[in-house]
Amino acid sequence: MKKSKIIVAMSLLCIGIVFLMYYSKKNSVVPHIGDAENVVPINAVEPKEDVVIYEPEIFINAEGHTLASRINTPSGYSRIEYPEEGFETYLRHFPLKANGSKVLLYNGNEKGNQSAHLAVFDMNISNRDLQQCADSIMRVYAEYYYSSKQYDKIKFHFVNGFLCEYQKWQEGYRIQINGNDVSWTKTKGHDDSYETFERYLDTVFAYASTLSLYQESAPIDIEALKVGAVFLKAGSPGHVVMVVDICENAEGEKAFLLAQGYMPAQEFHVLKNPSSDTDPWYYMAPFSYPLQTCEYTFDAGSLRKLDY
Predict the structure, then answer these.
(1) pTM of the model as a whole
(2) Residue 17 needs a FRET pair 20 to 30 A away by CA distance; which of 41, 51, 116, 160 works?
């Protein structure tokens, strides 16, 4: 009898152990992914080895003081190399104001729209409302030729066609205006100081515009794009922006930066690309008109090469 009780007790114990094991497994929490009808345990999904998580591209180096050091190229692109003394290199290494600087008007006030620019060139601007969009382009070229002492290349047409040459201004000649007639009159001695150079530019800016800039340029296709080329709409008012840097990838596809002055007269500044919140570059693949910048739209035929 005692032996029978022991056997019964052991049987009950075994049954209890089996029940506890079943109940514990049934109620254990196993992480799943998927919907309710097609659940798959997480540990049953093998990771994909070819999945790469990319960090967002960082285009601005706040510590940089030039286009080359401030604005990074897109991934897979590098800046095109240019001659060390060339206009392209001059622009690429022209000093920029501190990162985050606002665009100022000729009178020191802030421009109304501070959302269109990415960087501001640390370039002189007179205290008169003269250096507007076309004038800013002429100033960039004039500053380059002045800094490299290529004085004979500093010459711009007025709207009426008169050619205002800096070398004559250096020699002491000044313009005389009688109605629509313009002529030179010698009134001073030779002076190649920067202050006199700036007075020359103010005179040019007073009588030149997008209309005269149009006459000093020729149309080109996007495939012939180069630093210093402009997107130009001649008129009153018209507008113009300049290509200030170019990069390309291994396939030869190019991207470019644009800069502008505007009206009222204001500092020359690098434009953002309105199609992206972070990327300031405009891409040639694909490229189509109209070209939309933050403050103007250019139609087909607006890309031009200047005769400077």
Answers:
(1) 0.82
(2) 41
